[in-house]
Amino acid sequence: MEQTARRPARRSRAAVLAVVAAVALGAAGCDAVGGSPAPSGTAAEKKRPSPKPTPVWDTSPESVAAVGDSITRGFDACAVLTDCPDVSWATGGSEEVDSLAVRLLGRAGAAERSWNYSVTGARMADLPEQMARAVVRRPELVAVMAGANDACRETTSAMTPVDDFRADFQEAMRTLREALPKAQVYVASVPNLKRLWSQGRTNPLGKQVWKLGICPSMLGDADAMDAAATLRRETVQDRVEDYNEVLEEVCAKDRRCRFDGGAVYEYRFGTDELSRWDWFHPSIEGQAELAGIAYRTVTAKQP
């Protein structure tokens, strides 16, 4: 009876020893092959810095090309009915303007590595051809300002339809992307044409100049305040806002495109920022303001 009572105790102790030995051997086996990797979330793992992702947008591109219309050519900023690209907000070398290219590249760099392919009178339909010329230079940044001439027509019915405006802008972007997949694009909003009317109409000479045919859809019959004139101006203003929506939407689909968020449209310029010859195009002061808006947009950090 005494032997029978002791056997289970010996078996129990033997089982415990076997488990302890197995655990010890298991641990020794891991050490023998260099140890198992540290569990996820350990202090050692947390000390290792994670690699920083490369930003999609470069705030300091090394070359700039500009496309667009008379505003980007500096038309009527220096002399009557004359382009003045030296004061262009995008690529000009004027110290009074301090253009986007000068701010990004320095004056010497801007002279060597910035190009202006904008054309006075151009509409959005002309942008694909301008873009095709620009990509030959392989710029790292393309500055775009177009659309005012699409709204500034003889009549409101002659304004560029929104769908055509969208198609032309998309074609210009495809032209760029096929040649330069990594080039960046800054897109300025179309200026507030109704504000141009409200500011310029205070100048008698300006109203006389407008009669020569400057943006008749908005500026024609500048003093008329009847229902038809009011409706005409509102129709133009609505179309400009539609154009800006298109610019924003198309740009948003391209990870290397930045729209100015409506900054040019919303800028509350006065007569000092308007040409003394036509009270429509930007003066040298106005060009400097456009350059500042562009520079702030291009150099803004990614959210």
Summarize, please.
With 303 residues, the chain is an alpha/beta fold. The chain has helices at 2-32, 43-47, 70-73, 100-113, 127-135, 148-151, 162-179, 193-200, 204-210, 216-219, 227-252, 263-266, 284-299; strands at residues 64-68, 114-116, 141-145, 184-187, 257-259.
Question: How would you summarize the topology of this molecule?
Answer:
Blueprint: H1 2-32, H2 43-47, E1 64-68, H3 70-73, H4 100-113, E2 114-116, H5 127-135, E3 141-145, H6 148-151, H7 162-179, E4 184-187, H8 193-200, H9 204-210, H10 216-219, H11 227-252, E5 257-259, H12 263-266, H13 284-299
Parallel strand pairs: 1-2, 1-3, 3-4, 4-5
Structure characterization notes:
By secondary structure, this protein is α/β, with parallel strands linked by helices. Helices cover 50% and strands 7% of the residues. It has 13 helices and 5 strands. It has helices at residues 2-32, 43-47, 70-73, 100-113, 127-135, 148-151, 162-179, 193-200, 204-210, 216-219, 227-252, 263-266, 284-299; strands at 64-68, 114-116, 141-145, 184-187, 257-259. Strands 2-1-3-4-5 form a 5-stranded parallel sheet, with helices on both faces. The longest helix has 31 residues, at 2-32.
List the keywords.
303 residues; alpha/beta; 13 helices; disordered N terminus
Rg, please?
33 Å
Share of residues in helices: 40-55%
Cα-to-Cα separation, first versus last residue:
83 Å
Our estimate of the beta-strand percent is: 5-15%
Structural class: alpha/beta
Q: Quick one: overall form?
A: globular
Mean pLDDT: 87
